[in-house]
Amino acid sequence: MKMLAAVCLALWLVPFVGRQMMPQVFCAWYVFWPLFCALCILLPYGFAKSLSPQANRVYSCLFLAVFLTVVFANAMVVVGASGVGRFVSTPTQGLPEELSVEAVRNDSAKVRRMVAQSVYVEYGQPITYLDGDNTLTLYVPSEDDKERFQEKRVVRAQAAEVIGGVDSRGRQSVFALGFACASFFVVFFWAFNLERRRCRKPIKSHMLNS
Fold first, then answer.
1. Domain boundaries, the chain
2. What is the residue-wise DSSP string for the chain?
3. In terms of pTM, does the model score above 0.70?
């Protein structure tokens, strides 16, 4: 029992710490899933074994605590992944029609030029605006406008990468949560019945001998 508890702790702590320090290794499916599946099988097996009369109840608390921690951690990842879109979002690909209209119909020439400038900085697309002489002019971005647009592109690429990573971990955690709960009940009931039958054999043998 002591060895089984040590193995379960190792299967839980090593990937947990590894995903913080070396995510490129421990987040890979061929590393994560074998370790996680082994943990999800050994935890309910150890918990069922620890419920036998001669076992130490400390191990029961340990197996159950590790299982609940695994479930809670994956549930938090799922909740966090579902809410990340509220805080980080990517801009729409199409240029809003209202901005093009505003760059032509606004009463202030200064505002019309600022709209055209904002459109380029945000979307990288020069649009036609009505200048101070009431002439339709294609906006010519300055070097500062180009630099600001490039900075926004970098930020958007980083945001997309973050969203993709969080979304991937969220989907992985959904499957992990389902597998952990299902395997716990299946393996627990199988191991518990097996342990109960094993404990009954000496009683039956004693009754037959007497």
1. 2-88+170-209, 97-157
2. -HHHHHHHHHHHHHHHHHHHH-HHHHTSHHHHHHHHHHHHHHHHHHHHHHTSTTS-HHHHHHHHHHHHHHHHHHHHHHHHHHHGGGT--PPPSSPPHHHHHHHHH-S-HHHHHHHHHHHHHHHS---EEE-TTS-EEE----HHHHHHHHHHHHHHHHHHHHHHHHHHHHHHHHHHHHHHHHHHHHHHHHHHHHHHHHHHHHHHHHHHH-
3. no
